[in-house]
């Protein structure tokens, strides 16, 4: 193991809080929200709509948990017994899911009562298993209809969720028919899926928004028999993707919140009180939706140690190589910014290509160098992740496409070769490391910044409440 990683001094967390720069990540706002989170009635900047948050408080409720209570004896089996079929519980334990994570302990009892929930917990905290256990508690594999839909933002996340669902649903003697899980993802062969959906609908459908809406608009199937609708990375789908219109349609036109249980999940729900309000007002959820907020005062996992190296833009490749040599990560993701339209038009090579070329010629370590970016075709994207999952250490050069939801538990280091554009992006990129729920292993998030970018990183530190140590090379 790398000496750098083992010898990192224990960082005390002294968030830099100033009255002008409030540290509450929960008050982060998409640009169309007013910034004052404390007032009861707020005006949105875009349409002067008055929001009465009191109304939200009267209907929905919030479970806020910041510390792990003494529940050593509480197992996932105990929480799920009587709700989740025995053969799923057995599989769950075979895979190694024995003790509940905080979100599983806090949310599952509420989910089993049938209430809509917003699962709001740190990256790598086990939200996927939480909603999958709910789904397995509700579906009947003997029925030939789509009973649960999980909506995800990217094909990669869809493949990952499908894999976990299939692992849990693996055929058993009890469940003779087996529970079918279909991945309906952008870039797939929709023709084959159309016939499959019509002939033998799967019990669980994991889908990206565009592919799902295409099938619904073409009347290939309907959501009538859907008991649970999950939207994973919900804030991304609502605030950052171009598909927000389709997501809204999915929640209100193609199905009704009264007829299903709705679950939203993310590690970041900016302005969550407004979001809960919108859920109720827009009928995305029922009125008594529960916001389960775990580690509300600690948005990022404590096992992440954050550092920065100040350097010239022109010197970043060399600095990265020096960091790779000194830290010798077991596996790492190197995040690079998207190429701008202007740079594309000018015919420049994207930073990802330049970095790949540099690493291939000058990195002398043993890790496999792989690339993942949106412009690659779907097959190459799948090949990169498949190679990673086959084991062995990797250096994955990626744009933000790998920042959401991707679970590569062996990742010990994140390098922000380019600083992320937003504080939310920082949280999700950093959260690709430190993904072993009960491990106290420290992981490193290293930022390569220019002097002018220091204040941006400082802002991220304030808002996400972490402290970044300067590293001198
Ligand atoms: N109860 C458990 N015991 C052990 N490992 C678990 C448990 N629950 C989940 N995990 C593991 O924790 C890791 C992170 O889980 P998951 O991908 O669901 O995180 P997440 O909360 O969805 O994170 P993100 O917000 O980044 O998407 C996975 O490798 C998963 O297998």
From TrEMBL:
Residues 108-287 form the Helicase ATP-binding domain. InterPro entries: DEAD/DEAH_box_helicase_dom, DEAD/DEAH_RhlB, DEAD_box_RNA_helicases, Helicase_ATP-bd, Helicase_C-like, P-loop_NTPase. Keywords: ATP-binding, Helicase, Hydrolase, Nucleotide-binding. One of its GO terms (molecular function) is ATP binding. Coiled coil: none annotated. Residues 318-473 form the Helicase C-terminal domain. It catalyses: ATP + H2O = ADP + phosphate + H(+). This is RNA helicase. Its EC number is 3.6.4.13. It is an enzyme of class 3 (hydrolase). It comes from Arabidopsis lyrata subsp. lyrata.
